[in-house]
């Protein structure tokens, strides 16, 4: 799957009419706790079309990471392609980094077309959104992350996310526009949230064959911020032990990220890892290390 730079500038002038009784469908549950994050989008039209895709599926939270056009939500092409989803476009939250976009998020899904050596194991969209449903029942925000039209997501961006999805398009022509990819994922997520797929509680756990293990009922999940601070703390401890050579890291932290991504980290588990790292640094006379008190 790829996001070509070209965008058909001729938006359709009509939309599918809502079913009877759905015109004022209330947003609830996962619909209000799910963020759709576009990382460094290049084309204003794609941003507007993505806003339209979200609104048609009942979502409204759009986050833009360092868009090429800084005030893209006001761009005429974006407004035209939003085609009635001007409210979603105007409310888009613009942030400088993916870390800012994921602040407070407890689970995130990266969409990518490329096979990655490191990072979470990939899943098809339908399986991935089932995982999203399981996470949503624990409360807190989740995020779906989409990359730049030309280059997609960087390896660092992928490693920052909890899970990975790939749209299994026609291998002979797998080119998907960014907004089309957003439409596919938002559609699948809508079905899952509305229970037209199997109810989340009845779905089989995704652990075992590469999926993330599910936390016990009532166990709060760690947020993206908590997990990133844990990685900084752990990396400093491994350096203090001389187990990790910062001049020649050999992808050690990438491998550890992949390992932890499969585990579905709970907040208490993150605290345990950080407690171990803290004591290693104290024993090595390094104090708390760089940034570990936050």
UniProtKB/TrEMBL annotation:
Locations listed in the record: Cytoplasm
One of the GO biological process terms: tRNA nucleoside ribose methylation
Chief location category: cytoplasm
EC id: 2.1.1.200
Enzyme category, top tier: transferase
Sequence segments annotated as region (Disordered): 1-26
Catalytic activity: uridine(32) in tRNA + S-adenosyl-L-methionine = 2'-O-methyluridine(32) in tRNA + S-adenosyl-L-homocysteine + H(+); cytidine(32) in tRNA + S-adenosyl-L-methionine = 2'-O-methylcytidine(32) in tRNA + S-adenosyl-L-homocysteine + H(+)
MF term (GO), any: RNA binding
Residues of the tRNA/rRNA methyltransferase SpoU type domain: 35-187
Compositional bias (Low complexity): 9-20
GO cellular component: cytosol
Domain of life, per lineage: Bacteria
Coiled coil: none
Pfam family, one: SpoU_methylase
Assigned keywords, A-Z: Cytoplasm, Methyltransferase, S-adenosyl-L-methionine, Transferase, tRNA processing
Subunit structure as annotated in this protein's UniProt entry: Homodimer.
Recorded family membership: Belongs to the class IV-like SAM-binding methyltransferase superfamily. RNA methyltransferase TrmH family.
Function: Catalyzes the formation of 2'O-methylated cytidine (Cm32) or 2'O-methylated uridine (Um32) at position 32 in tRNA.
PANTHER family with a match to the protein in the record: TRNA (CYTIDINE_URIDINE-2'-O-)-METHYLTRANSFERASE TRMJ (PTHR42786:SF2), TRNA/RRNA METHYLTRANSFERASE (PTHR42786)
Full protein name: tRNA (cytidine/uridine-2'-O-)-methyltransferase TrmJ
UniProt source species: Paraburkholderia silvatlantica
Gene name tied to this protein: trmJ
